[in-house]
Design a protein that fits this description.
There is one protein chain. By secondary structure, the protein is of the alpha+beta class. A five-stranded antiparallel beta sheet has the order 4-3-7-6-5. Strands 9-11-12-14-13 form a five-stranded mixed beta sheet, covered by helices on one side. A two-stranded antiparallel ribbon has the order 1-2. Helix 6 runs parallel beside helix 9 and helix 7 packs parallel to helix 8. About 50% of the residues lie in helices and about 20% in strands. The longest helix is centred in the N-terminal third of the chain and has 48 residues.
């Protein structure tokens, strides 16, 4: 199934937007997380400076208050902890860290900050370690180096990150939807000239116009110009073809008519006269076949929408008069929803040849059906005559082949029908009819599909 150009463009756009928004979402999320981490580091540094401002000396030892102004340090479930270490040993900790073991290893030199992540088995924690030097009031005592370690559970940061991700992806999805709607509108407007071209081609195929209009966008103008040149050349060639056909018809038919008229006055044995008459008739049929075949090829491009049922009824009405003496039992079932896109002479040739053959070879019954199956139309002609052997199905469609020499004709009818159907890309199928004779089935597309996107 051919896919719409509009659908293809929208699918490519959607794929591009999904990849773009995925990349944008990933980058924005990473930048946001990095910004969150930097904000946390700044906040934790402020906490550390506030704690260091509370440091006092007692008996040449560093001490800090048991209760701090920031209540999160006093609450065990707050998720904010602080510890002072000296040579790997804890010398002070906030009330919130009383039940916590040593949750960070390592050591920072004086003035150095170290940031890391660790887990206490239950929670993920962000850790900041800062090295500082304490000089006791007694100058005789050497300075001492401590590490202030602050930690906070990542639960709050993770919750904020998850909410940001939810809002971010929701916003990106809304942007994709809005851009796709906008792109669809833009493409429909942009493809409008192609839809108009398709409409003009439909009118052209129905024979209501001979050229495409020239008021198309600049990008399509070369295509329109070249297409119109091809149409002009094809029309000129078709006109020359018709003129040549008319000249050939006039040049050949007149001498053949004269010969036919003179033949009865020629003194020859009856057998020779009969042979000459047969050959003259054969020449006349050959000329008519070749002319009809040439005209078929020139008419396909100028297609008209023709209701098939009235044509069938017209042909059958004439055949009933021609074969009235046979007393044919006609079974006719024609649906009015079948249409043929082409030349009415070609349609008449197809229906006339097939129904005439059935009337000619039948014993007493002829069944004609015209029906529609989905987008296809089907024309079937059946008879109760001798039928056609399976091995000769292809042979009867060849030019000049006749299976029954007792019936009049030169064997060009079915060959002409096959040539016409081939020109319209229609199908001809021969089979055995339930009536006992031959069944000819013709199928063609009954709709001109609109392939616009």
């Amino acid at each position: 199934m051919r896919q719409s150009l509009l659908v293809r463009l929208l699918l490519f756009t959607l794929l591009f937007l999904l990849l773009l928004m995925a990349a944008v979402g990933y980058v924005l999320d990473a930048v946001y997380r990095q910004g969150q981490l930097q904000d946390w580091q700044q906040r934790i540094q402020v906490h550390s400076y506030n704690l260091l401002a509370l440091v006092e000396e007692r008996d040449q030892q560093l001490v800090l208050p048991e209760r701090l102004q920031n209540q999160r340090f006093n609450n065990r479930d707050s998720g904010l902890f602080a510890v002072v270490e000296k040579a790997g040993e804890v010398v002070w900790r906030t009330p919130s860290a009383q039940t916590l073991g040593r949750f960070s290893s390592g050591w920072s030199d004086v003035g150095e900050w170290q940031f890391s992540r660790a887990s206490n088995g239950e929670q993920e924690m962000l850790i900041a370690r800062f090295g500082f030097e304490w000089q006791p009031l007694n100058s005789a005592v050497a300075p001492r180096i401590y590490n202030l370690v602050l930690a906070e559970t990542s639960e709050r940061l993770d919750a904020v990150s998850r909410e940001f991700q939810r809002q971010l992806w929701q916003l990106l999805v809304e942007i994709v939807v809005a851009l796709m709607v906008l792109q669809a509108l833009i493409l429909r407007l942009g493809l409008r000239p192609l839809r108009r071209m398709s409409d003009e081609l439909e009118i052209l195929q129905q024979g209501q116009s001979s050229q495409l209009q020239n008021d198309y966008p600049r990008e399509l103008q070369p295509l329109i110009t070249n297409f119109n040149r091809v149409l002009t050349a094809e029309q000129s060639q078709r006109e020359r073809y018709r003129n040549t056909v008319a000249d050939v018809s006039h040049s050949l038919k007149t001498p053949l008519t004269v010969l036919k008229g003179m033949l009865p006055n020629v003194v020859l044995p009856n057998e020779q006269k009969q042979e000459i008459a047969t050959q003259l008739e054969r020449m006349s049929d050959t000329v008519q076949y070749q002319l009809q075949r040439a005209m078929t090829g020139s008419r396909v491009s100028a297609a008209q929408r023709i209701a098939v049922a009235p044509v069938v009824e017209s042909v059958l009405s004439a055949l009933k008069k021609v074969y009235a003496d046979k007393g044919i039992d006609w079974h006719i079932d024609c649906q009015s929803s079948c249409y043929f896109y082409g030349d009415d002479n070609d349609l008449m040739e197809i229906i006339g040849n097939l129904t005439d053959n059935a009337s000619k070879y039948c014993q007493q019954q002829v069944r004609v059906r015209l029906l529609r199956e989905n987008s296809q139309c089907c024309f079937m002609v059946e008879d109760d005559g001798p039928g056609i052997p399976v091995t000769q199905y292809e042979q009867v469609l060849r030019r000049g082949v006749r299976l029954d020499s007792q019936q009049p004709g030169q064997g060009f009818g079915l060959a002409l029908v096959k040539d016409i159907l081939d020109a319209y890309q229609a199908q001809l199928r021969i089979s055995r009819s339930p009536l006992g004779g031959a069944c000819f089935e013709v199928r063609w597309e009954g709709d001109r599909h609109d392939s616009r996107g």
